[in-house]
């Protein structure tokens, strides 16, 4: 016999093959004494096939054998460690017992909870944050007060609302309560905090509820908004229906309601397109918000402009000039377009597009927002060196007078304009 002998074992009906050297790793253990050369202590029986029979649990013996081979213990649950400890104690494997006990001590500070039907994992330290609370007393070491039940897997069952318990657990972890809780959520959370006697949390909840007396919750077509009675005018609340939870329902467009609410908070209206302003005007009228309507109407009036653009190839620069539509005093849009874009040709070639900027050539583009691109040859060939502003002003004076029938050829501010005009 030698230390390199191969040993066959039958442990509870399962066959294992190892070496004598592995089994002697812990010299004071039962296994070492069983398989030491010339040891008087032998396994329970040698079977006909020459293997040694040991009447223990093969599942945990496999873990023990792997530990003796590698000097490492695999990751195990709390229950598995407890069962392995029984086997390690039987075989008097002191080094393995030290590791198991260290693992169990560490796991004793990790608490698994089943609250309602939801599993939570936390630490004893977290649950003891408020030591006078029910949770603090439940999970204090050697406490006589226990959770509702301990399950087979070592977790603790608590028969409470898991959603509210999650808020409590997060509060204990962070020392902060989430800011976005509604009045209803605070009231429900107060019930749970009272049950667990979490006095610090109850103080925060009560303070929040006091502040919530002036808080208004609005459900606008499915979207939730929270504001205060100081911000919200009575004309808005008059349009709302109160729900069972104390919030108000308003059957309007939430997108524009958000814009209205931000205006009421800040006294400023964000930048909006012409279409958005028109839609917002409908909502502001519905809620009878006169100050907002004044601003919207001012914005809409300012948007009633023609914007002229011209690309100068020599200077590689785009020139822009905007004038209110009233500047042309009733000159029809098609007359303005025809003049600024075609000049001598007199033919109307325009179309709508989403991208108003193009190299113009002899064509023009007028976009949906009344941007008029001036024909490149028209300005460069016939009006240079007039700049775009002078050109538009001169053209406007002529077109307005022409519409009133007040101009003759000799009275024009520029013969060039008259020569170009072809209606």
Task: Summarize the structure in short.
The chain has helices at residues 20-23, 30-35, 58-70, 78-90, 94-108, 124-127, 134-138, 162-174, 183-195, 199-211, 234-237, 254-266, 274-286, 290-303, 333-341, 376-382, 388-403, 415-420; strands at 6-11, 14-19, 45-46, 52-54, 110-115, 118-123, 149-150, 156-158, 215-220, 223-228, 241-242, 248-250, 305-312, 317-324, 371-373.
Highlighted features:
15 strands, Potassium Channel Kv1.1, Chain A, 18 helices, 423 residues, alpha/beta, elongated, single chain
Written description of the protein model:
With 423 residues, this protein is of the alpha/beta class. It has helices spanning 20-23, 30-35, 58-70, 78-90, 94-108, 124-127, 134-138, 162-174, 183-195, 199-211, 234-237, 254-266, 274-286, 290-303, 333-341, 376-382, 388-403, 415-420, and strands at 6-11, 14-19, 45-46, 52-54, 110-115, 118-123, 149-150, 156-158, 215-220, 223-228, 241-242, 248-250, 305-312, 317-324, 371-373. It has 4 domains: 6-108, Potassium Channel Kv1.1, Chain A (2-Layer Sandwich), CATH 3.30.710.10; 110-210, Potassium Channel Kv1.1, Chain A (2-Layer Sandwich), CATH 3.30.710; 213-301, Potassium Channel Kv1.1, Chain A; 305-420. The chain is 43% helix and 17% strand. The strands form 4 sheets. Strands 2-1-4-3 form a 4-stranded mixed sheet. It has a 4-stranded mixed sheet with strand order 6-5-8-7. Helix 9 packs antiparallel against helix 10 (199-211).
